[in-house]
Design goal:
Elements: H1 2-19, H2 25-44, E1 58-59, H3 62-72, H4 74-83, E2 87-90, E3 118-121, H5 136-147, E4 165-167, H6 171-174, E5 180-185, E6 189-194, H7 219-229, E7 230-232, H8 235-244, E8 248-252, E9 259-263, H9 267-273, H10 293-299
Antiparallel strand pairs: 1-3, 2-5, 3-9, 4-8, 5-9, 6-7, 6-8
């Protein structure tokens, strides 16, 4: 109602200005222009969508978090409902949710959390940042891998090592990067998964005697790895990664942020509100009939350690 009367006042001011004879034409023109600007601005109030939450902001309750996830994280929520699994990220206690540190050989299995706040976060991609890793070989690997992405990267894939982040449904694996939080990426959610490997960097690759020792230093081997492993935005592959606990490279192009982060103590209540049935409580399928040994050998897929990238 206030907006209606304000618009009426704007029209009245314009009409009065045009009827006053002792005001110059230039002054009348300025009055008319300013009045019309005010009318247009007032008419747009309520029609311009506002951000529900801003980046790096705190969510006040689990109920509010559930409402935001239901409306703005529909793709990741659907995958969690189908698989019964949630994505997790390890976070830095000293730098919030903006940095990830990898210390090869120093696996600190810390399930504690750095904060009890539910937040919306927009960390910068740091997988090709030389300051991310304690071991320079990790930096060399990710920088080399990033250069070969164009081999399989297509327009519209929208996720790279430069803008992406790693997450997994395996809390123990996530904890290698720091205190663990559950996350739901916002829509415009893009991802890249691995066909065979569980993690994007295998510590065995820096051990002498390993078949893939420093394989990325030979470009032909690295290119074979890229062609054989990387899968972009494939729903079956990402659901398989959710089920196996493999690391997923993801990014969100939402203006709201990358993801909403939930401390683990709120997760039980959140799963109920989101109608996610954990895979551990689902009815187990009756075991299939026994298969002959020879048939098992034929069906067995190669394990990551069986694959040599050359």
């Amino acid at each position: 109602m206030l907006i209606f009367w304000s618009i009426c006042l704007g029209f009245l001011t314009t009409a009065c200005a045009l009827r006053i004879s002792n005001i110059s034409d230039v002054a009348k023109e300025k009055i008319v222009i300013n009045a019309m600007k005010s009318i247009v601005s007032l008419s747009l109030i309520g029609s311009v969508p506002q951000k529900v939450v801003s980046s790096d902001s705190e969510i006040k309750s689990v109920q509010e978090a559930a409402a935001i996830i239901t409306k703005y994280c529909t793709k990741s929520l659907d995958i969690s409902r189908r698989t019964g699994r949630i994505l997790y990220r390890g976070t830095s206690a000293t730098q919030g949710l903006s940095e990830r540190k990898l210390s090869i050989g120093k696996n600190s299995l810390d399930y504690s959390i750095s904060s009890n706040k539910i937040t919306v976060d927009s960390p910068r991609g740091d997988l090709v940042n030389e300051n991310t890793y304690s071991n320079p070989l990790s930096t060399d690997y990710f920088i080399a891998l990033n250069k070969e992405f164009p081999l399989v990267y297509k327009e519209g894939d929208f996720v790279t090592l430069e803008n992406g982040h790693l997450a997994t449904t395996d809390t123990q694996l996530a904890s290698l990067w720091g205190p663990v939080v559950a996350i739901f990426p916002f829509d415009d959610f893009y991802f890249c998964t691995l066909r065979h490997e569980k993690t994007w960097f295998n510590e065995g690759w820096v051990s002498r005697g390993n078949n893939n020792f420093l394989f990325w230093k030979q470009r032909d081997k690295l290119q074979n790895f890229v062609r054989n492993e990387l899968v972009f935005n494939d729903l079956d592959s990402v659901e398989s990664a959710y089920s196996k606990g493999s690391e997923i490279l993801f990014t969100s192009h939402s203006s709201m942020g990358q993801y909403i982060a939930i401390p683990l103590q709120y997760l039980g209540k959140l799963l109920i509100l989101l109608n996610i049935e954990p895979y551990t409580t689902r009815v187990k399928v009756t075991r299939a009939p026994a298969i002959e040994v020879d048939e098992v050998k034929q069906r067995r897929k190669p394990r990551p350690q069986d694959i040599i990238y050359f």
